[in-house]
Amino acid sequence: MEQVALWTVTGVCFPFLMTTLGSAMVFLFRKTVSNGAQRIFLGFAAGVMVAASVWSLLIPAIEQAEGQGQVGWIPAAIGFVLGAGFLMLLDSIMPHLHPGARDPEGAPTSWKRSSLLMIAVTLHNIPEGMAVGLSFALAAQQGEMGSWSAALALALGIGIQNFPEGAAISLPLRQEGVPALKAFGYGSLSGLVEPVFGLLVVLLASNVGPIMPYLLSFAAGAMIYVVVEELIPEAHLGEHSNVGTLGVLGGFLVMMILDVALG
User: Fold this and answer.
1) CA distance 137 to 134
2) 8 A C-beta contact, residue 84 and residue 229
3) What are the helix (H) ranges across the chain?
4) Handedness of CA 69, 73, 78, 83 (dihedral sign)
5) Does residue 216 contact residue 12 with C-beta atoms inside 8 Å?
6) Of 4, 60, 108, 182, which is least surrounded by CB within 10 A?
7) What is the reported pLDDT for 82?
8) Among 150, 17, 63, which residue's Cα sits nearest to residue 9?
């Protein structure tokens, strides 16, 4: 039991650690990430999240629903819609500012740009934390090595794409005059929501096994909303949009290989 808890906590915290490491790039570089690199990072993150939504969330949701004697696609569809709706609601209510944008979105506010930038990434990290937490909760319920490997693959994939995401927060803040240590703190804190939501859903899922298919597809819907609403459009801003497309394909390929090879 202790070993299961250790694996779960480690896996849920790993993406946050990678965000923190990425944010630490502010101590090595004073300039922001170039537009081309930014599009590649955004595209890569989008590809990872799409592949993770399919292999690590929706397919397990359908399989578990069928194992419970339900029509597999019904819980998956309901959870998917609820997850997308949840992120859409947060996106419209919470004031936030995307990197490179001039005007904030959401409710009107007088908050500083640094706070709004951090909130934007924090909103994106909520479904990622839920996804990793649910994968480890599912592995704990099933107790199979394949399930643990799949959860590890998801944590690894999300962690890889979180590294440039942390740098994408801290470096622009440094360029705007924010002290390096404070910029690092903002970048790191943007990823703190991942272990928080990850551990919350682990605790929730351990007591409500019958609704696990809904929770898995909920996380998938939230992640796909982020991809379609934010990541892909931002990855194709400016010239040479094929760079962002290659990033999406690369991220999808990496996550697919990780999930299939390890899972």
Assistant:
1) 5
2) no
3) 2-23, 35-51, 59-67, 73-93, 113-142, 145-175, 180-190, 193-205, 212-226, 232-235, 242-262
4) positive
5) no
6) 108
7) 95
8) 17
State how far the Cα of 35 lies from the Cα of 21, in Å rounded to an integer.
21
Mean pLDDT, residues 118-123: 73
Q: Give the predicted TM-score (pTM) of the model.
A: 0.80
Helix (H, G, I), strand (E, B) or coil at 167: helix
Output the six-digit token pair for 72.
Answer: 């597999």
Q: How far is CA 187 from CA 23, 92, 102, in A?
A: 5, 22, 19
Backbone angles phi, psi at 41, to 5 degrees: -60, -45
The residue type at 15: P
- Show the tokens assigned to 152: 């590890």
The tokens describing 28, both together, are 């090595």
Q: How high does pLDDT run on average in the chain?
A: 81
Instruction: Please say whether the beta carbons of 219 and 130 come within 8 A.
Output: yes
Q: Pick the closest to residue 165 from 197, 133, 129, 198 (CA basis).
A: 129
173 contacts 244 by C-beta, under 8 angstroms: no
Going by pLDDT thresholds of 50, 70 and 90, the confidence category of residue 167 is confident
Two tokens, residue 104: 């904030």
Q: Which residue has the tokens 């480890």?
A: 136
User: Is residue 31 pLDDT above 70, yes or no?
Assistant: no
